[in-house]
Design a protein that fits this description.
By secondary structure, the chain is α/β, with parallel strands linked by helices. It contains 13 helices and 17 strands. The longest helix has 20 residues. The radius of gyration is 24 Å and the shape is globular. Bound molecules: 6-O-phosphono-beta-D-glucopyranose.
Length: 493
């Protein structure tokens, strides 16, 4: 797919996401010569900055990310693409001026609007863009990128979707889940569908259970307002972790095109057994960090963080167990967990195979063997490992675990930020790594019963010390032999 020159209009350009992700990603695309000639980036912000101030700000954003790779000459070329539009996005004159600016000849008429703003502003901003005919595709395409959270629950997501479809066709909507832009996440598909030896094993006959973990050692930083009304289940599980699950569990799509891929992903979500309200306690667990130590430093508990009410029961840790009721996965439990202020920052998918029969080893020293695991490290360590049992050298018949490594990236290969990939896909019109509304809808359907139960149970929440692996939630596991796996190297039992 070829990319045509376009104007990227960024709402919320002075905010955190733009600083740490969007502007550095656009710069890196320019470094890689992937921005089509003539591409422009128009930043919208409320601050009374002039063009020079904006360029200085962007230089700082890019330098902070690029570090030693920062190249002043390329930045000069990049800055030729940058414009600052000062305005209050709740006021109509902001859009009148915006329409005048975008009509100028230096701006390509293919326009991508990136809404990096509060979800409450999505509707009003779209309405005002539409009033100024900025979505009309007479002279070029118009695309709108919507950041998560897409709604607050199923009802609000449906309401938002209704509003969006009033202004835009589905082909114009790019619902972003930045996890799909991560190289290792895309590698999950390659690993599964480009290696023939896996497919016969990838099912309930051989797999005991699947775990998906996203742990963070950071707390909520300055995001108290947002986080306290969201919580870990909405913030990570409903979106990123369920997306990872779809990639691990889906059937092979007919092709990589957007519809085929998303058809298969949504089938997984639709096949997940609904959690009845009375089973919420058996299938989900929540916790909140108390004060503790992270990397040797004392840190506050959640309730001491800025902008958090002293009696908040918002969860900073959430775990749950799901079952996919289809032919491939029936009966295989899927365990997922995420949390802030945990012992280590790590995203991984761990697939545990069934135990082999031990008959062959009767009368030897081998008492018990670890099952095989496939470990997919998403970040910070990007790896694919298959753990096998091998004989320990020596005169005895004893065994140990060894792992086969299929590294994703060599040392001399640079990491590419997820946003680079996704911002480029918008230019190309490739929606395969963006969410279709039914994916969002079914993801909400899965977590809604849990959210509703937790919303009324506000008297108590389990706590865990910051820097630990979270609260004691082993009751989620189906068997004694199952437990959270936190390491990507062989664990001796
Ligand atoms: C965001 C969440 O969507 O993803 C954050 O709102 C979380 O709370 C972040 O920290 C994690 O993303 P990444 O790419 O750092 O793993």
């Amino acid at each position: 797919m070829n990319a045509e020159p376009c104007t990227y209009v960024i709402f919320g350009a002075t905010g955190n996401l733009s600083r740490i992700k969007l502007m550095p990603a656009l710069y890196h695309l320019d470094v890689a010569d992937r921005l089509p000639e003539g591409t422009r980036v128009l930043a919208i912000g409320r601050r009374p900055w002039d063009q020079q101030k904006w360029l200085d700000e962007v230089r700082d954003m890019v330098k902070a990310k690029a570090k030693d790779d920062f190249d002043e000459a390329i930045f000069q070329r990049f800055s030729g693409r940058l414009y600052y539009h000062q305005g209050d996005i709740s006021q109509t004159d902001c859009y009148t001026l915006l329409a005048d600016t975008l009509a100028k000849k230096e701006f390509p008429q293919n326009i991508a609007f990136y809404l990096s703003i509060s979800p409450a502003d999505f509707g009003p901003v779209m309405s005002m863009l539409s009033d100024k005919h900025l979505f009309t595709e007479d002279s070029g395409w118009r695309r709108v990128i919507i950041e998560k959270p897409f709604g607050y629950d199923l009802d609000s997501a449906e309401a938002l979707q209704k509003r969006i479809s009033h202004y835009l066709d589905e082909e114009q909507v790019y619902r972003i889940d930045h996890y799909l832009g991560k190289g290792m996440v895309q590698n999950v598909l390659v690993f599964r569908f480009a290696n023939v030896m896996l497919e016969p094993l990838w099912n309930r006959n051989y797999i005991d259970h699947i775990q998906i973990t996203h742990s963070e050692s950071i707390g909520i930083d300055s995001r108290g307002d947002y986080y306290n009304s969201a919580g870990a289940l909405r913030d990570m599980l409903q979106s990123h972790l369920l997306q990872l699950l779809t990639l691990v569990a889906m059937e092979p799509p007919v092709s990589m095109d957007a519809e085929s891929l998303r058809d298969e992903k949504v089938k997984v979500l639709k096949s997940i057994r609904p959690i009845p309200k009375e089973a919420v306690h058996a299938q989900a667990f929540r916790g909140q960090y108390a004060k503790g130590q992270v990397n040797g430093e004392k840190v506050n508990g959640y309730l001491e963080e800025a902008n958090i009410p002293p009696n908040s029961t918002t969860e900073t840790y959430a775990s749950m167990k799901l079952y996919i009721d289809n032919w491939r996965w029936r009966g295989v439990p899927i365990y997922m967990r995420t949390g802030k202020r945990l012992a280590k920052a790590q995203s991984s998918i761990s697939i545990c195979f069934r135990h082999p029969p031990l008959q062959f080893f009767r009368d030897t020293k081998v008492q018990c063997m670890n099952p095989n695991w496939v470990l997919l490290g998403i970040q910070p360590e990007e790896c694919i490992r298959i753990e096998m049992t091998v004989k320990e050298p020596g005169l005895e018949m004893s065994t140990r675990t060894s792992s086969l490594d299929a590294s994703f990236r060599n040392h001399d290969e640079k990491a590419i930020d997820a946003y680079e990939d996704l911002l480029l896909d918008v230019l190309k019109g490739d929606r395969s790594l963006f969410l279709r509304f039914d994916e969002v809808e079914y993801a909400w359907r899965i977590v809604d019963p849990i959210l509703q139960t937790w919303a009324i149970e506000r008297d108590f929440i389990a706590t865990y010390p910051a820097g630990s692996w979270g609260p004691e939630d082993s009751r989620l596991f189906d068997k004694d032999s199952q437990a959270w796996r936190s390491s990507l190297t062989p664990e001796c039992k």
